[in-house]
């Protein structure tokens, strides 16, 4: 019976129909649907498929039960799929899945049930999204997860118990976010964690209270944070062996800073501002300390540290910066008599950052609301309330007031909530945010005002909320950006104004938004962007202008945006692109979206200046018949040329040759001449009559030197990409 069942199963895989435009490897139960124009998960994928690669499609939303037809999946790759939202229950039924890659999408929020049903999942990759907030319980069903990758998102705050349920997690990657607030119990539910990556964030002090919950962690990465001082007994991690505090802003370290981390062996303090160190007597097990790149003053003031190094047999890496006679001398070569006192004095040590007293907690809670003292949450969502309730506990950090009918937010609407970090006011019928409405919300980072009726905002509305970093005003009634409204928000990082009725961006609209990094303006009616409209936002990294009424690339407005890495112009009626339209951002741009625009002509030098930095280029669903040379785009990971009517004559021969060298599925198809219509540009024979055809294709004909155009070779080449996608994540 077992053999009969196995035969029936194998027969089912072989007989199953492969959905277009996918490629099915029935022997290994793999399905590839790469870089296509799919807008929904195909429902005809063979049921017994184990590995499904959907990279480079356009799903926007993963609906509930999207994969119920493929319950045997073990590996699922959804990178670069423009996913914005995971509905609750999106992955329900995938109880065998061990690997899920959702990197390089546009997911902004993880809800409690978004990842429900993935109880066998071992690796979850969410790198390169725009996740701003994680609700506690979002990972509660992932009891088998060992690696969680949240790098390069937009996280500022981690609430208490946010990782609850991850009992076997060993590596948590939070690098390249903007974290500067960690709940004291943020890491409390991670008993198996061995490695924590918090480098490249905005932490201004060592989050000792939160880290003290990690008894088993052996490696901690805290480099590239603006930490200036490590206080006494600041780090209590019983198993920690490797600590990285490189490229921070350290000016001083207390003698007993690491006394409560007895297993510490390696301390990396490279590229800081340390002129010296005291004897680290508390770090009894330390074997190596790296001090390269610090302005070390090798005077008599450093003798105690030098003597301690010799006595404790600690290897020190670094060299003197002063006095001149010792400049460049390695620390381990110094003799105490050489370290003389001089008139040079080190600057006074910075005072230890004092911790603000916590607001007293309370068991009080407004009638009709629910307050959770464990999570510091309050909720009155969908309560049919007409006035904003008061008397929440003073230590509330997340307040959910969605789906009520407040109409207006009056002055001082949230008294006593100095610790509030996240405020949800979506779908509340709000027409006015009055001056002083947020007064007293000293710690507020996230403000959600989506789906209201706001048409204007004054700067005074944000008075008293200086830490606000994420402001979501999607789907309101704005006809223009509220000019000057952001003057009191020096820490604003992300501004959402999608799906309003904004007609233009004028000079002065973004005044005061000097720290803005992400600007989302999709789905408005923008026809014009003034040359100086974006000038205040010199740190801008992402600019999304999809679905507006622009008729040309706003080249003049891009000048000065030296950090811009993503530009989305999809679904604008831009018919022609002239020379050098992306030159102002050519040195930084990595992701360029030019799809679904009706684009008819791209000039030969339209992409001038762009090159190896470009990682993804979307040109699908346009009307041009040729495109300029992209031979210097050597770093491409995604190239989509589907639904473009290429004229496959000799002028297109360079593109044909270039595509044949790529290890990418680009989807380029001939629209003319008639004998080539519908053929892949790669396979069209119309190029064989072109001058120079034989010379260019001579090497390609030799299968031992390069990939030939034969069918077996194509299968081999296309089989490489999914192996990388499934089994290897970026370091």
Automatic annotation (TrEMBL):
Annotated segments matching region Disordered: 325-363, 692-731
InterPro entries: Cys-rich_flank_reg_C, Leu-rich_rpt, Leu-rich_rpt_typical-subtyp, LRR_dom_sf, LRR_TM_domain-containing, LRRNT
Annotated function: Potential negative modulator of chondrocyte differentiation. Inhibits collagen fibrillogenesis in vitro. May influence chondrocyte's differentiation by acting on its cellular collagenous microenvironment.
Quaternary assembly: Associates with collagen and binds to collagen fibrils.
Family the entry assigns: Belongs to the small leucine-rich proteoglycan (SLRP) family. SLRP class IV subfamily.
Keywords, alphabetical: Disulfide bond, Extracellular matrix, Glycoprotein, Leucine-rich repeat, Repeat, Secreted, Signal
Signal peptide: 1-15
Location relative to the cell: Secreted, Extracellular space, Extracellular matrix
Protein name, per record: Chondroadherin-like protein
GO CC entries: plasma membrane
Entry's transmembrane regions: none
Domain LRRCT: 294-342, 645-691
Biased composition (Basic and acidic residues): 329-341
Sequence ranges assigned to domain LRRNT in this UniProt record: 17-51, 364-398
Keyword Repeat recorded: yes
Pfam family membership, one: LRR_8
